[in-house]
Specification:
Elements: H1 2-19, H2 22-42, H3 48-107
Length: 108
């Protein structure tokens, strides 16, 4: 009887674990890593001034990297838009040519 009850409780735990989405687990993992990194930085054996300078440098590096990636993405999106416009223009021109040809054939 006790064995069956333990199995039932084990099933409940397994069901509860399955309900947690992978995205939720990833969120908690990232939060844990961030908290651990922050604690490591704040508890490191450096002076406060050195730590603040290091944090400031990392922040500025991150901002620079984000701006660079955003600029590259804008260029890529601009290229995709240009390519899309060219394809639409080509399709419209081909449709116009086909219409003119059909009109000529019907008129003859």
């Amino acid at each position: 009887m006790q064995n069956a009850q333990q199995n039932n409780e084990g099933d409940k735990v397994e069901v509860k674990m399955q309900r947690v989405s992978p995205m939720w687990r990833l969120t908690w993992l990232i939060a844990g890593v961030g908290i651990g990194a922050a604690a490591g930085i704040l508890l490191a054996p450096q002076s406060g001034e050195d730590t603040r300078e290091w944090i400031s440098d990392k922040y500025n590096d991150g901002i620079h990297t984000a701006k660079t990636k955003a600029k590259r993405m804008r260029w890529r999106v601009g290229d995709w838009i240009d390519q899309g416009q060219e394809r639409v223009t080509d399709a419209v021109n081909a449709g116009g040519d086909a219409l003119k040809k059909a009109v000529k054939e019907v008129g003859t």
